Fold each of these.
Amino acid sequence: MKDKHIIDVLDNTSIASLSESELSAVQAHAQECESCREAYEAARLSAVVLQSRAQTKIEPSPFFQTRVMAAWREQQAVENVPAMLRLWRSARALVSSMAVTTAALAALTFLLPAQTTPLTDQTASMISAESVIMGQGSDDQETYDQVLSTIYEDDDDAR
Amino acid sequence: MDLARQAQAGDESAFAEIVRRYSPRVFSVASRFFRQRSLVEEAAQEVFLKAFTQLGSFEGRGSLEGWLTRIATNTCLNTIRGAKRRPEFTVSDLTDDEQQWLDHHSAGDGEQRSVENSLVATDLADRVLSVLLPEDQQALLMIDGEDASIKEVAEATGWSESKVKVRAFRARKKVREAMEKLLHRR
């Protein structure tokens, strides 16, 4: 192993699980090969910090069991409520708001007086479809000839 | 198995006994993933409530402890996956204590064991572990940190042994490279 790079060995297995002979071979190679020395040093320090991390354990507090049992009872209480009641509880807000909205719309529809004024026959005839299409004005609208005769009459009077 | 059956039938004292007996194991698993007590407790509570609802699926082939360990592992992994990933560590983030620790230990002066030293080492571990997927962290911490066998990890996680090997190899390589980076840029 002395002439063989050891990086694969370091990545394949933890340093702690190497046998004594394997470890000495790895160290011997690391002393002569700079890149493997750096890799070995990093692997060794990684193993130290990982073991330290693994030893950091949090123990359950004396109140933990009480806390879990309280949560469990709460969960049980929710599950024991009949399904329809649970459905009603979750949908209550939505159903209530829909009912209020419907009542408000009904009140607006039936109780308030109508505010739109229907068109009279005269108005309707003034803007009938035929008059718009044919470009014809209504009866009381002056024609071009009438306008001209009115102007000339005014001139005659002036003279 | 009896305890599990009694709890499933709604026996409160049986469920309380399960919580009392297996809390240390569940906390031990959750401690691999979280360092804050509140997070560990939250995860452990979720594990027991989930276990209660799934007691029907426990057939008693393996131990109740093993079954709970697997639920704990999956629950913690799901919590971590749902949380935001921590940003990748940078060398400039190293504290003075961490730099000092690396100086001492790379010079071979690593025999000082104290609570403070362990805390610094644990912080450094979290720093290098942050480059890994949560599943890879789990495999590496169990094998290299707790000296667990490949088989034990496979049982605790429900992964195949070859999958555990691949995860451990990949994780070890990445952690070593991250540590090399820290050592170079000190």
Amino acid sequence: MANDPRSLRTALARIRFLGSAKSGTHHSWHMRVTSVALMPLSILFVWILVSLAGKDYNAVRATFADRFLPATVMILFILTSAYHMRLGMQTIIEDYVHDEPIKTWSIIANLLFSVLVGFAGLFAVLKLSLT
Amino acid sequence: MSEVEQRRPLSPHLQVYRPMLTMMMSIMHRITGAALYAGTLLLVYYLVAAANGPASFATASWLFGSIIGQIVLFGFTWALFNHLLGGIRHAIWDTGYAMDHPAREYLVQATAIGGIALAVIVWAFAYMMR
């Protein structure tokens, strides 16, 4: 056993190939790092959307085309959110879906959906600000 | 032997516990997270519509400006603030602070009320600005 005090394996050797799961605490850690990043980003995101509320097309175009901050914040918010929500939804799937094939396909669908959301948002903001 | 196995204690689950605010808010954190997951489609639709041109932006504006659209967007705002404050709460708990009795209750009450309050304040502000 890994916790056997008589074991001669070093701590490094135990974690080196990350055991049978082949991954360590990355999921949990990335969840926390993205959540810290999203704290200021979501406040700025709400600020931008409040300033856009009820505005016409030209005003929205101008917001993203003329100024650096709204487009940058929006892109960072969308990409960080997409990664954060992919991690979160995967945890939900792993908690509640116990049928192995359905679980695997759900995790794949979750990844594809999150990537789609992230890149559709990214492309839309880039088009708004650069064209 | 099989009788013995059947009497093994089961790990207590949701229906065994008396509902408590900390527990309800933990569940709300997951529910609002899942709601925001779906809600990103609204944001992407809005941005793609704006990127597509004036005609599709007008449709999106009309949709979000309608009564149902406004209710959904208010719900999205509340879910965002609830989840944001919930994330801060869990970050505080992760460090080991505010886990004992009165502190954790105050913290969870503050985030529950704070989420609603921030959503109302933001919407009041948005209506005053326009």
